[in-house]
Amino acid sequence: MSREAGAASGGPGGRNPRNQAGPRARRQTGVAGRLRDPEQAWSVLQRLAGRYAGYFTTRTVVRAGCEELIRPAVDDGRVVRVGVGLMRLGDWPAGPLDDYAKWSAWFDGAAAVSHHSAAELHGIGRLRPRFVHMSASGGRLPSSPGLVVLRRALRRTDVESAGAFLVTTPLRTILDLAESGIGQIALDEVVADAVAIDRCNPDEIFTAAATLADRATVRLRRSVDRA
Q1: Tens digits of per-residue pLDDT, 38-68?
Q2: Is residue 120 located within the same domain as residue 222?
Q3: With contact defined as beta carbons under 8 Å apart, do 132 and 148 qualify?
Q4: Are 125 and 118 in contact (CB under 8 A)?
């Protein structure tokens, strides 16, 4: 688990004379070394966090040049710590998809909700996942018992936007589940639902099944025949 939270502490009280004026009177230095006004830095942080439903990491704090603003913001409630290296804007309303947005922020958007969780979002099947399933090509893995991350690179055509996060397309989700350990009946339900609500058509599923390993191909085509 990353211990980056200390990078965002900052705050007044050091012996450097520049630190005596307080964080709002000083100018922040962004990643590129440019001096940034505190109000501008805070605006940048809000914009970056807004991509992920108000969630952001300590890396985002550094990128925005807000290191010295975070501790006062936590103290007055404008920022809430939600984990090691993870924070959220305090005035952002809670929502049912917050976990997906939170972990998308952790991976800087370079991850997608996938597998069982993606099926739940698309309304196909009745898998009732107990964990958040995501696919990520890189980035440091967080230590969270409620998160399952598969390391892999996804093509742009394999994902679609769900606002604050990416999710694998219905077709990609079906292919992933065919290769996973779910039973044949559960896979049948996923495929039948996808066809019934017009998220995929049987022909495209049948054709795409050829890209899988032999056992998964047979399983998936059996589900298509039963849909």
Answers
A1: 999 999 999 999 999 999 999 999 999 999 9
A2: yes
A3: yes
A4: no
